[in-house]
Amino acid sequence: MKTCLVVDDSKVIRKVARHILETLEFSVEEAEDGRAALAHCENAMPDVILLDWNMPVMSGMEFLRALRRAESGGEPKVVFCTTENDLAHIRAAIEAGADEYVMKPFDRETLHSKLQIVGVA
Amino acid sequence: MEVSSSSRRILASLLETRTGQQLAVNRNWRIDTALAPIMREHRFENLDHLVTKLVTGSSPALTEQVIEALLNNETFFFRDKLPFDLLMGGPLKRIETARAAEKRIAIWSVGCSTGQEAYSIAMTFAEQEVRWRGWKIEIVGTDISRSAIGRARAGKYSQFEVQRGLPVMQMVRWFGEEGEGGWQISQKLRDMVRFEVRNIVERPPEPKQFDMILCRNVLLYFAPDMRRLAFSRMADALAPHGALMLGAAETVIGQTDRFVSDAENRGLYVPAAAAAAASRRVA
Ligand SMILES: C[S@@+](CC[C@H](N)C(=O)[O-])C[C@H]1O[C@@H](n2cnc3c(N)ncnc32)[C@H](O)[C@@H]1O
Cystine design at A4: which of A26, A69, B221, B232 (Cβ 3.0–4.6 Å)? Predict the structure, then answer.
């Protein structure tokens, strides 16, 4: 079973994402900001990370840069999942090492297709 | 909303005579949800009133609107990625060899809906710039739905449509932002594709002979004889070295004798006549 870490400060979004991911047979972990997510990753690298942009304490971008610098931090696939829906943000995310990008709102089909594209579903 | 059985029968026969599509018995729900916006727009109190208006034949525009609403237009970029990649592998190589002299390839997307399939093909070619330099790649998308073809030509997609199936790298490369939440496909890709309103059982579009035909998720709800007719139209339009691709849940087996499975490429089909000629050569 593949593991997915959902990083989002919204409990509702985490719940929705968890539900979809579990139907896609992922084992799901949650973190409410970038720092908590980093702590998770130090413990065990997930196969894929679903990452929000704007979060208190540590934003998605700060988390991603820190992750990609960390030992084996290049391994997880990172899928941004955010309401920042313009090309400038998307380009910046790719440059920082994101593998895919989901613009909110999203549904099961969209998330599934993006997870297939990065090769984890 | 209740759909009376007589209204249902009339709508079903209207749809089938115009498009070949049969309204499945268990799709009652689709009728009222699909027609709700039209009912509101024209202020019909109930479905029977709408159907009565259709039966008098006094409003062809309304009839067309109703038919289009009953069609399922679902599609997305790079649908069924694995067989799609397969098609763009071996079979495309075979076509490339066969067309090496004239350097011209024609591809027909039948029942192309809002164009995602045709543009996925265009992207695939555009991303192999060196290989296809000097070639003329002609991609034609046809669909019976005028509104779908209008949208395909415009090449403008919602946020929901643009991210379904399409890798973000390709989105960034081939789309620009257009207004609030809209995404416009590049002119370069639009120039590679032509769209026409056309019923599949009519004559094929120009250039009449194609190297690849994709007809996916269109014939699913056709009656068997209409399906056979559609297959023979496509067989007439496919070059002997060509390939046919159907939807993931579709097959030619038991539907037509004009196509056979491509022995080397699962899920793809080749003209039966060409396959027979090839096996005679081997024998
Ligand atoms: C479900 S969509 C499939 C779109 C695309 N081929 C795909 O697989 O993603 C089916 C399309 O077939 C079109 N269609 C239905 N009957 C047709 C006919 N008789 N001739 C041409 N197109 C037809 C519908 O308008 C609709 O856009």
Answer: A26
Going from the C-alpha of A41 to that of each of A25, A63, A66, A108, B215, the distances in angstroms are: 20, 11, 11, 25, 45
Looking at residue A95, its amino acid is E
Q: What is the pLDDT of residues B209-249, one digit of tens each?
A: 999 999 999 999 899 999 999 999 999 999 999 999 999 99
Report residue B111 as tokens.
Answer: 């029942």
Backbone angles phi, psi at B116, to 5 degrees: -60, -40
Average pLDDT over residues A46-58: 96
Which range of residues forms the domain containing residue A83?
2-117
d(CA A6, CA A32): 8
Testing the interface with B: which of A100, A107, A110 to mutate, by most B Cβ within 10 A? A110
Whether the Cβ atoms of residue B269 and residue B244 lie closer than 8 Å to each other: yes
The answer to whether the CB of B119 falls within 8 A of the CB of B157 is: no
Q: Which of B75, B162, B163 to mutate to test the interface with A (most CBs of A within 10 A)?
A: B163
Q: From ligand 1's centre to the CA of B79, what distance in Å? A: 14
What is the B76 CA–ligand 1 centroid distance (Å)? 12
Identify the residue whose tokens are 């849940």: B249
- In eight-state DSSP terms, residue B21 is B
Domain limits for position B43: 5-70
Are residue B60 and residue B93 in the same domain, yes or no?
A: no
- Residue B198 and residue B275 in one domain: yes
Number of domains in chain B: 2
Mean pLDDT of all residues in chain B? 93
CB B250 less than 6 A from any atom of ligand 1 = no
Mean pLDDT of B119-135: 98
Q: Is residue B76 part of a domain?
A: no
